[in-house]
Task: structure prediction
Amino acid sequence: MQTTLELYSFKIITKEETDLIQKAADCLARSFVGVNVSGKWVQEPMVGQLNIGYEDFYNFTKDYLDSTVDQGYCAVAHDIHNNVVGVLAGDINAPEIIGEDIFEGSFYDMNVILRVLEDVDKRFMEDYKKRYGTEIKDGEVLHLFMLGVIAEYDRHEIIQQLGNKLITKASSQGLKAVLGEATNPKSIRVMEKYHKMKKYVDVKGNFIVHKYQNNSRLNKIPVNLADGTYIIIREL
Result:
């Protein structure tokens, strides 16, 4: 039986690899909007609840990759047929709070997700400043933004290899921490198990979480599927 490293290749992609960027955007968009993998339905809860379409989400993902890939923190897994079957994409920008709707038309509901992410990011940055007396600056923290795996086999092993590539690089470049907004329990579990990331606890001893039950657009997400978006972190 072939091992994960024999079935798949892993690499950090560059701005020049436009074909891989397109394939990575497709992999992420499919895994977020919804795809059947080995008889299991894979979908991001907020994207599913808001019924966001593939084309809009692909364009959003492609724009993100185009603007951040040159930072060197987008890792892909591809199979022997050169299909991209896993992506972990991040950046080293400090979290940015826009505070207003920026998406329009058929993609308007993406603003709901943006506000959830900004809610937890804002509270994290306020707590970080209380804790350390300084604000997060660009280039200090690896922000893991999007994870998508559509491989039929070895899904957790792929996540492990992708994360290892990015976290090892972040550590070697002297970054302080790895940060993410985990939108469902599966993401939290795999990042805890394979990459030692934990739910962030603020100075008052509380998790930073946006509860879906308290959001009028997201409160129909079943609690047993996902209860909210949490800040997760690992110090390096």
